[in-house]
Amino acid sequence: MISWSAYEQFALCERQYYYQRVEKIPRPSNEYLEIGSAYHAAIAARLRGEKFLQVRPDLVEEIRHNLDRLQTFVFPHLRIQAVEQWFDSDKIDLLSGTIPVVDYRGQAVGCDEGRCVIDFKVLFKKRKMERNRGQPAHYCLTTGIRWAAFVEIPRDLSEPIFTTVMGFQQWELDHWRERFEEADKRILELRGKPAEDYGLVRQGHPLCSSKWCFAWDQCPGGKIRG
Ligand code: SF4
User: Fold this and answer.
1) d(CA 111, CA 97)
2) CB-based burial of residue 60 (10 Å sphere; 0-12 exposed, 13-18 middle, 19+ buried)?
3) 192 Cα–ligand 1 center, Å
4) In the chain, pLDDT over 70 holds for what percent of residues?
């Protein structure tokens, strides 16, 4: 099955997918990716009981502080089974373990066979209250676990750490599987075709800009329609 990041990109803009994954134009790193990766590496190291990793000097204090908060408020509730493991086509930045899920009466409802896929997200600005369920659904489909959780870590240290746990019914997983399979099918149809056959993002989309699209210089799409 297509990886989540490839699906997300393809669903946004087929042409951008083409430039990165077919033509292999290198995608420059950015501040968000760099900081997210530094957090993930530091969290994985802490969970494996390894020493604090070398990170950018300006991030050391912030990450150390957030690791201590995770150690106090989140990690004691987890029984870790795997850290940063490959599943199928995706490397999932995950912990697969148990996380206590309680209902509104305070009673434990538990996760699927006591297992849950957990991903960590660094919050750069405000908390995102609504999360796209596609990504956790992808985690569930690739691991066979029906529960997924996001632990949201704010860069603003005065904000608390949030954990959102999501369970999936079979119909919802089927719905997402269909969407991923449709993308797989279309990618197969496009194989060997020229760039022009790959569709463009919808006109006026905010991510179609010189700031957010690494392929802006190559792609006529945004400029022609701009
Ligand atoms: S410039 Fe716009 S249309 Fe072209 S690849 Fe980027 S997002 Fe897609």
Assistant:
1) 10
2) middle
3) 20
4) 82
**Contact predicate 142/89, CB 8 Å:** yes
Q: Are 203 and 224 in contact (CB under 8 A)?
A: no
Question: Which residue segment(s) compose the domain that 126 sits in?
Answer: 4-225
**Bridge pairing between strands 162-167 and 147-154:** antiparallel
Q: How many domains does the chain have?
A: 1
Distance CA 203, CA 108 (A): 47
CATH label of the domain that carries residue 131:
3.90.320
Most confident of 74-83, 99-108, 174-183: 174-183
Mean pLDDT of all residues in the chain?
Answer: 82
pLDDT tops 50 at residue 99: no
pLDDT tens-place string over residues 121-170:
899 887 666 678 998 899 888 878 888 888 889 999 999 888 888 889 99
Q: Whose CA is nearest to atom 7 of ligand 1?
A: 208
Q: Measuring CA to CA, which residue among 199, 139, 141 is closest to residue 175?
A: 141
Question: Torsions phi, psi of 195, nearest 5?
Answer: -50, -40
Compute, in degrees rounded to 10, the torsion defined by CA atoms 7, 29, 96, 52.
Answer: 180
- Given the structure tokens 């992808």, which residue do they identify? 138
Rounded to the nearest angstrom, the distance between the alpha carbon of 88 and the centre of ligand 1 is 29
CA 1 / ligand 1 centre spacing (Å): 24
Q: Give yes or no for residue 191 having a pLDDT over 90.
A: yes
C-alpha of 12 from chain center: 15
